[in-house]
Specification:
Rossmann fold; 2 domains; 7 helices; globular; EC 2.1.2.2; phosphoribosylglycinamide formyltransferase activity; Phosphoribosylglycinamide formyltransferase; Formyl_transf_N_sf; purine biosynthesis
């Protein structure tokens, strides 16, 4: 199984970073975290990385005249560290084409909503404001938009009566940790395929071969008593039994290109 050489960009607490570090340390993820970069001095995520023996850097966006030069500095640091895939784990900056061109189709983000719903900041409050009954989280490849890149995997959770932003965020964070680690594992297994846009205005599509990249669905039937771990356990079971390859409505498998 190939090892992913990861660079992780963070701005805050770094709980998703911790999920990655734990999975690597416990042998659940074939990856090495080569570098953690924060744009915020003193971000708690940097302490998490240091405790795990992972190199860290602070690259402040305030030290650069524009987004492009900031991104160029990030690229230089990641390349020097030998990074091949980049994970945005609570990184509160939009990336420019300068960055995305350096890691084409190899930048992954976790967003606390079922994309394309509720992009941008405070997705949990957006879900509450709209009165949705289900929400979740999405792992996707990053493009030049805000949480608009090709979807890789999603996990589903209920919005319960009496939820506020904090209780909903707490329910989602466990899903985020599990979904992000599982998706990175599927990428390390060489399952990721992309289908280029076939017409103007069409989107690139992503696909993970041999798995059902949706967690939590089975637990939704008992919505009043669902817990994050219960829903995940049932979702994981269904994922492991998926057929190896079924092009079906997505088109001939030869149309899908493996990401190097």
């Amino acid at each position: 199984m190939p090892q992913l050489d990861l660079g992780v960009l963070v701005s805050g607490r770094g709980s998703n970073l911790q999920a990655i570090l734990d999975a690597v340390a416990e042998g659940r993820l074939e990856a090495r975290v080569r570098l953690v970069i924060s744009n915020q001095e003193g971000a708690p995520a940097l302490e998490r990385a240091a405790r795990a023996g992972v190199p860290t850097q602070v690259v402040s966006h305030r030290a650069f005249p524009d987004r492009e030069s900031f991104d160029a500095a990030l690229v230089a640091a990641l390349r020097e560290a030998g990074v091949s895939w980049v994970v945005l784990a609570g990184f509160m900056r939009l990336l420019t084409p300068t960055f995305l061109a350096a890691f084409p189709d190899r930048v992954v983000n976790i967003h606390p909503a079922l994309s394309p719903a509720f992009p941008g900041v405070d997705a949990q409050q957006q879900a509450l404001d709209h009165g949705v009954k289900l929400t979740g989280c999405t792992v996707h490849l990053v493009d030049a938009g805000t949480d608009t890149g090709p979807i890789l995997a999603q996990a589903v959770a209920p919005v319960l009566d009496g939820d506020d932003r904090d209780t909903l965020a707490a329910r989602l964070i466990t899903l985020e940790h599990t979904l992000l680690v599982k998706t990175l594992g599927w990428i390390s297994e060489g399952r990721l395929r992309l289908r280029p846009a076939t017409r103007p205005g069409a989107r690139v599509k992503a696909r993970l071969l041999g798995v059902t990249p949706v967690l939590g669905i089975a637990g939704i039937a008992g919505i009043a008593g669902i817990a994050g771990s219960e829903g995940l356990a049932e979702g994981e079971a269904s994922a492991s039994g998926a057929p190896e390859e079924e092009p079906g409505a997505e088109g001939d498998a030869r149309e899908w290109e493996q990401v190097p």
